[in-house]
UniProtKB/TrEMBL annotation:
Domain HAT C-terminal dimerisation: 302-358
Annotated organism of origin: Paramuricea clavata (Red gorgonian)
A molecular function GO annotation: protein dimerization activity
PANTHER family the record matches: 52 KDA REPRESSOR OF THE INHIBITOR OF THE PROTEIN KINASE-LIKE PROTEIN-RELATED (PTHR46289), HAT C-TERMINAL DIMERISATION DOMAIN-CONTAINING PROTEIN (PTHR46289:SF17)
Any Pfam family matching the protein: Dimer_Tnp_hAT
InterPro entries the record matches: HATC_C_dom, IFN-induced_PKR_regulator, RNaseH-like_sf
Stated name of the protein: 52 kDa repressor of the inhibitor of the kinase-like
Amino acid sequence: MAIVLRFVDNLMNTREEFLGFIPCQKGLSGEALSEEISNFIKDIGQCMEDCCGQGYDGAGNMAGKLSGVAARTQRIYDKAMFTNCYVALLSALGAIESDTTNKPDVRYRAGGMKKVIKKFEFIVCLILVECCLKCTKPLTLQLQCASLDAGKAREISTLYFTINKLRSDIDETHEAFYQMAIDLAKEVKIEPTKKRMTGSQVHRENVPADSTSDYYKRAVTIPFLDQLLGQMQSHVMYGMPNKVVSDPDWKENFSRFLNKYKDDLPDLDFLECELWMWRLKFCNLTDHLPTSLEELFPYADRLSFPNILTAMRIFGTIPVTSCSCERSISTLRRLKTFMRSTMGEKRLKALVLLNIHHKIKLDVEKVIDRFALKHPRRMLLVDLLNRDDSTLEESKDDLP
């Protein structure tokens, strides 16, 4: 299991750094993994009491509400706010696709899927999902950035307004999508049809419609756009408003956020005065207002706004996704293949750290000196590349 630490450094840059892998020797249960994580954090000299956020994939042992790692950790350290990463769920598709067994149930399912994709209903859904998910590509790329903070993720409002515009102009939107579905159906020789109506709706959409186009608009297009808007509202657009100063309840919302981390604030008694000065500071600001957490850091002086600066660093530390951990797993596959499965844990961690943090320049001479002190031997280390044969013979004579 990969461990990545997210923090805001002294230059107010949000960073995510890989620390190492944890061998899951005690099992994969939520209790065992949470204990391994706590021990790892203690071994590197950090305190779990300072943890203000945690992020995992959507597996049950990690994100379970009762016995998952996130729930167990938050019961002990209540400041460790949990953020679920839905990107990891997409990796399950690769496992399904790579399953090439010849079991009968697999063949039956494949035959059923082949029958489904030949229906006009599948084509309508395919066109709708393709067009809408093309708009979400910028959001997907931004959510994979290591420097992305929760505030910036919530400020991605352009996509939300675009999807909301499609929902408002549902007649024009569906007409365009439906015409694309008609054209694709003609190429594969599939007739546009709709499902038959039933007396009561049980296992299928039974919406009343006069035409095939109206049926798919009410049964597919409208529910899909509503679901997409709802998910974006709950997972991306939630929380603080974009213009906090102009919101009448901004102070109450900010105080509610700080109530969870009040023990980390340097001077809680000065908070009310700080918020008052912070509001006046931006009310008198006529230039470009900051729109991200990185742009807001220079305005928070350490002496004038110590509590607000601490709150901003906590807010920047809260994880948005676990993509850095997923990239660390990719590094592991490059280093430890099936042919090198006997590599030790300590050597593996060292190689992974060297590979991931390749921009850090190492002093080769110090590495050699440290190796010689750690593993002393009765031999003379000879530079075979820079010495001639005569020097090599002299070195051999010096050996006991």
